[in-house]
């Protein structure tokens, strides 16, 4: 069974300490654990990077070896055409995830390049909400099988 790739962008390694009023106090390691429990038997690849190149490299890896992609591109959401172009090559389901409700924030967070490829977008459900994205991905993959 191909793994689900759960990819996280810049500054999310600081989750737990980073602007807790916006992102809460759950750490990224705790998010990874929550995702592994939510995925059950389904294998996952969980990664975080502050580098656009690495994020694109993991999308390329998922193109060859992944079943689905859950991606919180963080700030690259609103800046990276390269990331969008990479995601366009992926044939499986893509879920875009944001911990905060980006639509309720400053306008710089309103226009997502990734949403031009994403099959679904989840915002504002907090760090624990990643488990809802995993459940949704399992449903999407289940309906594909
Ligand atoms: C995380 C970030 O780092 C911001 O750049 C995004 C996103 C929002 C989040 O809510 O997970 O705008």
Notes on the protein architecture:
Helix 4 (81-88) links the parallel strand 3 and strand 4. With 145 residues, this protein is an alpha/beta fold. The mean pLDDT is 97. The chain has helices spanning 20-23, 28-39, 52-65, 81-88, 130-144; strands at residues 4-8, 44-48, 68-72, 94-98, 120-123. It binds 3-dehydroshikimate. 3-dehydroshikimate (DHK) is lined by residues 11, 72, 74-75, 98-100, 102, 109. The site of 3-dehydroshikimate (DHK) has 9 residues, from loops.
Features:
five-stranded parallel sheet, binds 3-dehydroshikimate, 145 residues, single chain, 5 helices, alpha/beta
Strand content: 15-25%
Task: State the separation between the terminal residues, measured CA to CA.
Answer: 11 Å
**Record field, number of beta strands:** 5
Provide the low-confidence segments as ranges. none
Main β sheet profile: 5 strands, parallel
Identify the strand order in the major beta sheet. 2-1-3-4-5
Overall mean pLDDT: 97
Question: Any idea what the radius of gyration is?
Answer: 14 Å
Bound compounds: 3-dehydroshikimate
Specify the number of helices.
Answer: 5
In brief:
The protein has helices at 20-23, 28-39, 52-65, 81-88, 130-144; strands spanning 4-8, 44-48, 68-72, 94-98, 120-123. The chain has 145 residues and is α/β, with parallel strands linked by helices. The site of 3-dehydroshikimate has 9 residues, from loops.
Layout of strands and helices, then pairs:
Layout: E1 4-8, H1 20-23, H2 28-39, E2 44-48, H3 52-65, E3 68-72, H4 81-88, E4 94-98, E5 120-123, H5 130-144
Parallel strand pairs: 1-2, 1-3, 3-4, 4-5
The protein binds 3-dehydroshikimate (DHK).
